[in-house]
Amino acid sequence: MSDVFSLLRDSTHDSDRHQAAQVTPAGAAWLASAATYPRSTLSLWESRPVAPVVLPCGSVFDVVNVPSIFGRRMLDALWADGPGCGPVATHRGRMLLFTAPGTAQRLPSLLDWEEWGSAVPPLLCHGTGDAVTVPSPTSNNTLSGARWVVAPDTRHPWLPGPEVMLWACVRAARATSSSAVRISIFPPADQDAKVYDVTRRR
Question: I need a surface site. Which of 22, 54, 82, 193 has the fewest CB within 10 A?
Answer without folding.
Answer: 54
